[in-house]
Amino acid sequence: MSARIEELCRTLRLSGLAASVRDLEPSPCSEEINAFLLHALENEYELKLERKRVNAVRTAGSPTMKRFDDLVVDLLPEDGRSYLSLLKDLEFLKEHQNVLMVGNSGTGKTHLAIAIGVLACEQNYRVIFKTTAGLVNELVEAKQERRLTYLLRQLKRVDLLILDELGYITFDLAGAELLFQMLASRYETASTLVTSNLMFSEWVKVFHDKSLTAALLDRITHRALVLNMTGTSFRQR
Q1: Based on the domain organization, do 22 and 82 belong to the same domain?
Q2: Are both 79 and 128 inside the same structural domain?
Q3: What is the pLDDT of residues 34-45, one digit of tens each?
Q4: Do 123 and 13 share a structural domain?
Q5: What is the rounded CA–CA span in Å between residue 155 and residue 127?
Q6: 71 three-class SS
Q7: What is the C-alpha separation between 86 and 119, in angstroms, rounded?
Q8: Beta strands in the chain (DSSP E)
Q9: At CA 232, angle to CA 207 and CA 170, rounded to 5?
Q10: Same domain, 75 and 54
Q11: CA distances (Å), origin 63, targets 11, 135, 168, 194
């Protein structure tokens, strides 16, 4: 019991309390005191973990709070149902694999992406959620302000980068090149999740340049989980 108390004191940075426990003279009440301290420290540790999880979800930037339990699984397209267990276990994060969800609007892509992000936050992964257009704007501004290297370094450290709505808004070639640079820097070192309403053959409409589009697809689809999320829109049901 004393070893666990010392471990919790180190984790919670309570070195003074740990020293006091070590100096505690044996007495008939020692066992009760240790039991009380262990219970109090375990509770404090759990509260700290919960605060950390809540803060991680908040700073990830998800537009709403959605979980896997909120999904109506039977309404998901076939790939959404088939890959659900793989997405839930987050094994792709350990393998630095990407996840690509491609299909028409309203089939659960964003809901799945947010649920994955929330679960990853709760398991102590670093997560950032962005719309693709929003991130491109940030990259362009960072380059103009000469802080692009810093932003790319920050994004590279993120365990899971979620890019939502690729294809809804186009951007110019300069923006496309910056997005390619960012994704290339994360290649095989961290996971990126992309949702898009465009099939891969149509991504050139967003990136404008065929060679750039081909190079991007070559990297982002390598060892990736690719889900065809084409189906009937939830909003039309």
Answers
A1: no
A2: yes
A3: 788 778 878 877
A4: no
A5: 10
A6: coil
A7: 13
A8: 99-102, 127-131, 160-166, 191-196, 225-228
A9: 15
A10: no
A11: 32, 14, 17, 15
Looking at the structure, do residues 49 and 140 belong to the same domain, yes or no?
A: no
Residue with the two structure tokens 């302000």: 145
Provide the domain count of the chain.
2
> Domain check: are 106 and 147 in the same one?
yes
Nearest CA to 97 among 199, 221, 229, 195?
221
Residues 153 and 191 in one domain: yes
What long-range pairs does 86-89 form, CB within 8 A, spacing at least 24? Answer: 86/225, 87/112, 87/116, 87/225, 88/119
Beta-bridge partner residues of 161:
128, 192
pTM given for the model: 0.80
- pLDDT tens by residue, 152-201: 999 999 999 999 999 988 889 999 999 999 999 999 899 999 999 999 99
Domain with 104, as residue range(s), is: 68-236
